Amino acid sequence: MTTMTTIKVPVDLRDRIAELARNRHETMSEAVAHALDAADEEQFWAEARATMGVDTARAELQRESERLSATLTDELEPEDWSDIL
């Protein structure tokens, strides 16, 4: 069983959580958990976009890809990934 606790939030925030939960047919706890999950995912993708947009990070990924591709012995023709990396 999950251990429970109480947090203090302003009444208007409690009401927003309750409305969200009601609209989604879930508990207030589930509504908060889903909102936090969505925020975590949004932050992950924002950081991924920021990292991938940096030329040095992109060049580093290209070098790492080239280094690792030399270890492949699958006898397949080399592939051009320059449009992705």
UniProtKB/TrEMBL annotation:
Residues 74-85 have a biased composition (Acidic residues). Residues 65-85 are annotated as: Disordered. This is Ribbon-helix-helix protein, CopG family. It comes from Glycomyces buryatensis.
